[in-house]
Structures are given as structure tokens and as C-alpha cells.
Amino acid sequence: LITLLTNDMEFDPTEIIAIYRQRWEIELLFKQLKQNFPLKYFYGESANAIKIQIWVTLIANLLLMVMKSGLTRSWSFSGLATMVRIALMYYVNFYSLFNSPEKDWEMVWKSVAESPPDPSLFD
């Protein structure tokens, strides 16, 4: 049996609108998670491992939202998530990087361009 909120005459129309608005926010969150944190496969097989992976994804999403709210420069969420994924390989200040990326990316590219010294067995 399927019951829709719109069929329940006991609810006030403003309550139904508020409930559907909250539901829509959840749908937008799921869309954001699927686009930016692909959970196509799970790293573990146990229920606990899957729960941990989902919680880590939710925490990462929350951290990115907090970071996005603290930036002075405007970034799309997907663009920010992609750049963070790339920048995690380097030691950079995220707020500095995302507020003035040109200067910090130049520094990152210089460090990448410098080849590390050749290892020596006898030094």
C-alpha cells in the first residue's frame, strides 16, 4: 500500500509543503554525494565497513561545505571537490590556495617540475 502525503487530508497544506521541501534537500544531498564522491563499489564487505565508508563520505562532504563557506572566492562545489582531490597530494594551505589559486598553483608546479635527487647507495 502506497500512501502519499498529498492524499492525507489531515495535514495542513503548509505542513505538506515543508515536508516535501525537506525531502527535496535530502535529494539534493544524494545528488551531490553521487556526483562528487562516487560510491560505485565498497572497500569492505561487512556492514560495518560499508557504514564507515558512507560516514567518511558524509564527513568529507561536510568538510568541503564548511570550507566553501569560508572562502572569499566563489567556487562550485564540484570544482572545489576536484581541486581538493588534486591538492591533497601537495602540502598547501587550502584557504590560501582557493582564495588566490594562481600564486599557489605556480608554487606547486615548480615543486613538481623539480626532479628529486637520484638516490645513491654509497652516500
TrEMBL record:
Keywords: Membrane, Transmembrane, Transmembrane helix. One of its GO terms (molecular function) is transposase activity. The chain crosses the membrane at residues 49-67, 79-98. It holds the Pfam family DDE_Tnp_1. This is Transposase DDE domain-containing protein. Residues 4-60 form the Transposase IS4-like domain. It comes from the Bacteria. InterPro entries: RNaseH-like_sf, Transposase_11. GO terms for biological process: DNA transposition.
